[in-house]
Structures are given as C-alpha cells and as structure tokens.
Amino acid sequence: MKRIVSIFALILAFCALATVLTSCENEEPVYKDYTVTITDGLGNPMDSVIVKFVNSDGESKSRVTGKDGIASLKNALAGDYTVYIEKGFSNAVIINGSYDLTADVNTLMLVLRDETKSMDIYGDVPDGSYACLVGVGSYTVPCEADKNSYFVFNAQKPGTYKVCVSSEDEKLTVGYYGIPMFVQSTHRGDGEYDGKSFELIIQDSATPYVLGIDASRFVNATLTVERTGDAPFDPQFAPWTVVNSTHDITKFTLPAGAALTDIDVTDPTVSVSLGDDGYYYTADGKQVYIRLGSVCEAGYLDVPLALIAGLIDANFGQNIGGYVYDENGEFVGKYSYNSMIEAYYGGTDEEGNYTGNCDPKTGVYPLTEELAEAIICHGTSAGWWKPNTANYLFDGINVVTENAWLFLCCTID
C-alpha cells in the first residue's frame, strides 16, 4: 500500500513539473518602447543627439533625437538597457554619457546644456557651472532637486524689469546673483523680496544679470521676465559732456629769473578774482598761474594734473571733471575737461621734446576762467577738499576750504 502511495506522489510531482515547464514554454516575451527625451535648460527639445541603447547581451541600436527631442527604441524586448548619449550633430554638451533603463523603467528625461544658448559662470558656484541665456518672456524650466539653475538676462534697453517664478514646489525661489564672472551665493537685489519675485532697475543694458532658481524637488517652473517701465533717472548713467577750450591759447614762457611762489591755502587773507582780461589775480594784483605739468612744494597732490589727465604717460590717466548741480541741488550735467587741459598742456614730439603751451620748465600757465572751472569741478567731485573722504588732500592741515582749489596755483616773484 505504501509503495502505491509513493508511486502516486511521484506521478503527481512529475505532472506538476511538466505543467510548469509547459507554462514556461508557452509564456510569451514582453516588448516595450524605450524612450529618451532630451531638452536644454529652458525646456526646449534638443535634436540630432545620438542615443545608443545596449541590452544585457551587448547588442546595441542607435537612434537620433528628432525636433521633439525624443529618441525611441520601438517594440524592444523588455529588460535592462544601458543608454549612451553622444553629441552627434547637436549643440549638446555631453558630460555624463551613460544611463540605465529596466523592464519597469523604460523612459528617461535628460536636461543637457546647449552650447549655443548658454555661457560659463564663475564665483560661488561649482566648477563647470553654466547659465542659459534668457530675455524678456516666459520659460518653462526643468529644475533638479536641491540644485540651482542659472540664467543670464541681457536687457535690450534700460528699464525696470520684474522677475518672477511659479511652480508646484512651494520652497522654490528665484533670485538675482550678480554677474557671470562673479556669481554670489545670496540674492543681491534691492527692494522688496519674497523669494518668488523681485524688481531689477537696469540703467546699463550692456551689463549681464545672473538669475537663479533653487528648487527642493524635481519640478517644472515658469520663469518670467517682464519690462514694466522706464528706469528712473540716475546721473551715474548720464552721458559725459566734453568741455573744449574757448580761450585764445598762446604759448607761455616764464620771464627769465622768475621764481614761483605757491599760494598759501591755509592763509584766510588770501583771495583771487577774475580780471577783465580773462585771467585771475590776487587781491594785491599779482597774476595767478596754475601748475599743469608740475606739483606744488607742499605736495598736496604728488603727481601733476597733466599726468592724471593722461597727457604725460599713455598708460596712466583718468577723467578730469565730475558731476555738476545747480544751487537747488538739481543735476546739470557730467563734464569732462581732459580735452581742454590737453589744449593748454599739449604733449611731446617723437624726440620727447615738449610741444605744448605751458612754460616748458615748470609746466605752468596763467589761470583762466575755464581752467579754474575744471579744477573746481574735478576737485569737488573727487572730494579733494571734503574732509573724511578717501581722496581728501589736506589731512592734518588747517586749510581754508574756500581757497582749497588754489592748491595748484602760484604767483611770480
């Protein structure tokens, strides 16, 4: 009886195994479409990217993304695939060239850099960081979790611009982070800021602005840049007015044996006035001269005015002039006197000989109304006689403020 039971059990086991084998033989293979979608940092599809699908047996098939940025391996046997990305004829920058797909995960979304629509950025950013180029408009931006996405905005004209962002990520923020060569780690804008929007006042349309979006999870965000109006007037961005000489300039040479005496700007009794001939004189009738090519003995300024104006050394020079305001504090203009000073001082010939109108030994010239205007404008703007400023020239000296502009002037004895 036991033997019969054992044989029966063996038969049942054999039947069960046969059923399993038959079931396996009859199980049909599963086929799926494997799809790779590639966009740039602004969500634009990237075409002409080569996508190579390699199965677990090492067999490969290549596809190229179309205008929609999609490359598909149609009706492929479900399983594990390694996906390799190659530049092809696209504008994509390839850094990580391989990705994995499985029987359960058969789609892949990639965001690649478009080398024609982006630029490198530096500063408080990881090495190799870049920013996509944007203008006025709205962009659907694919954002990665805990990673900043950067954009460079170039305004086409000065104005007031509003930058805002919206997404399903409540923690997502947008900010202004400086310029491409020095991206900073915190929002640099002025005015109200709630993390979702801010205002930029752009006076110089040549300056690039780096915008950044920080997301806490993978999400598509909408970045919008809108021009809302004209920029308020700012004298800093007003054009310079070049002031040319109107004086009848002639060559000047000091009389033989003449000695220069610098005007004492610490003496409260000193005063000068403009004569009918267009030149300045002291109260006791001495003509006043200004040092364009030399420095005063007191050394308030250790280089000649002509050097500052770029007339002595071609590698050194700056604007002589400044901002002018009326008696009510209203802006009048920005005046540059370099051209005028050059008319007086002149320069040197190819042999290095002085060819200007000043006295060739001392670099002085009779003080005219326009030269006085130039020194007063520049000195006031530069803070030369304004205490507690970086350019103040009279530290520790009891200068008469009203006469401070005469520190480059002298008389003849």
Describe this structure in words.
- 12% of the residues lie in helices and 34% in strands.
- It is mostly beta strands and 413 residues long.
- The termini are far apart.
- The relative contact order is 0.10.
Question: What are the defining features of this structure?
Answer:
4 helices, 4-stranded antiparallel sheet, 413 residues, 5-stranded mixed sheet, mainly beta, elongated, single chain
Strand elements, count: 29
Estimate percent helicity.
10-25%
What class would the helix/strand composition place it in?
mainly beta
Spatial strand arrangement across the major sheet: 10-11-13-19-15
Distance between the termini: 149 Å
Treating each run of at least 4 consecutive H or I residues as one helix, how many helices? 4
Overall geometric form: elongated
Estimate the mean pLDDT confidence.
Answer: 92
The poorly predicted ranges are 17-24
Q: Assess the beta-strand content as a share of residues.
A: 25-35%
Main sheet overview: 5 strands, mixed
For the CA atoms, what is the radius of gyration? 39 Å
Write the layout of secondary structure elements.
Elements: H1 2-26, E1 31-39, E2 50-55, E3 60-64, E4 70-77, E5 81-86, E6 92-93, E7 98-101, E8 107-111, E9 113-114, E10 118-120, E11 130-134, E12 137-143, E13 147-153, E14 159-166, E15 173-176, E16 178-179, E17 182-183, E18 197-202, E19 209-215, E20 219-229, E21 240-242, E22 260-262, E23 272-274, E24 280-282, E25 289-291, H2 305-308, E26 321-325, E27 331-336, H3 338-345, E28 364-366, H4 369-382, E29 409-412
Parallel strand pairs: 1-8, 11-13, 21-27
Antiparallel strand pairs: 1-4, 2-3, 2-5, 5-7, 6-9, 10-11, 12-20, 13-19, 14-18, 14-20, 15-19, 16-17, 22-29, 23-24, 25-28, 25-29, 26-27
